[in-house]
Amino acid sequence: MEDFIKKCPKVELHAHLNGSLSIETLQKLAIIKYGKSNSRFKELCDDFRNFEDHSMSECFQKFKFAHELTSTLECLREATLLAIKEFSEDNVVYLELRTTPKSTEEMSKRDYLENVLLAIKKASEDYPNILVKLLPSIDRSQGLDSAEEMFSLVLDFLEDDRFKDIIKGIDLSGNPTVGNFGVYKNLLVRAREASLKLALHCGEVENPSEITEMIEFGMDRCGHGTFISGENFELLKEKKIPVECCLSSNVVCGTVKNFNEHHFKRLLDANHPVVICTDDLGIFNSNLSSELTIAFNTFSLTIDDLRKVITNAVNCSFAAEEDKSDILKKIEAFFI
Ligand code: 6MZ
After folding, report:
1. What residue's CA is closest to ligand 1, atom 21?
2. pLDDT tens digits, residue range 180-215?
3. From the CB of 80, is ligand 1 less than 6 Å away?
């Protein structure tokens, strides 16, 4: 089955750029940045993947490692290209990447966003089998000023003919135990008015009042949705908000005890639009084929279930209608 899933054309909707750098990619970036690869680097990579304490805070510590290696323009472009290459090698045919623009000694947030967009454009030539879109991210732990700065860059790039078809929406992510949703509402309303879609991390940790506030506000897709229950779950279903489930991420971060207890199955059984995503394949040492295989084996899915989950991903993607129909044709051809 693993081989069948690997060969299947797939759609990835929830992938954070710096979390999507495999160990091989990080090693290549270290060589570009520091000029050599050494055994200390190997140890750092092992640290990166080993979780002593399965908690959200330990997970968030890990990002610093990738951020250090993508702090130059050259490494950032290379990281973006290599991440896309690896998704393409896993037969992902449509990818929505998300990332929070950062300023470093060498680049401003504008440079960051522009170079990620340039790398996505280059990838369309180098890896023509995968179509890539971008959801610039608000990091909820960084506060409103930072989010406003990012949003004004997005509005600028939406006016730029080179990039306007690449940016499809806004992601709200970051450590869910820090900051609060309400602060970003006004900005998100303006994003909607600018025809951007909203993919919001919601209910990744237990916080019922914030979950209610977010679902009532509305979103085009919900990231994780782990702790959505009771009336909030009914409202989510009523509003038909698709949920992006990230199995390994949730189990490693300790928000779900084990794969068997993952809420993916509850959503699938409720016939709710649900998709499987990787979140941060470098950190969780996974890829989309592995995540779908885990779902397939854990929940004894049928081929029809698999097809449904992959098709759901196309339907709730932020791709243009003609792109959706091309991707659906590829998937249908595979399952015949
Ligand atoms: C919430 C997450 C996340 O933006 O530097 N990120 N936010 N929950 C998660 N579950 C594990 N995984 C990643 O990619 C890394 C950033 O994505 C967000 C965090 O803000 C993290 O710093 P970029 O490319």
Report:
1. 174
2. 999 999 999 999 999 999 999 999 999 999 999 999
3. no
Q: Contact, 11 vs 317, CB < 8 A?
A: yes
Residue of 166, 168, 17, 28 lying closest to 87 (CA atoms): 17
Q: How many CB atoms lie within 10 A of CB 328?
A: 16
pTM of this structure = 0.97
What's the pLDDT tens digit per position in 95-117?
999 999 999 999 999 999 999 99
With beta carbons less than 8 A apart as the criterion, state whether 285 and 247 touch.
no
Residue nearest to atom 11 of ligand 1 (CA): 249
| Structure tokens given for 182 | 């309400």
**The 131-139 sheet, strands edge to edge:** 10-16, 92-99, 131-139, 169-173, 197-202, 221-224, 243-245, 274-276
Residue 296 parent element (H or E): helix 288-298
Supply the ipTM of this predicted assembly.
Answer: 1.00
| Ligand 1 contact, 146 CB (< 6 A) | no
Q: Which of 60, 102, 247 to mutate to test the pocket of ligand 1 (most atoms within 8 A of CB)?
A: 60
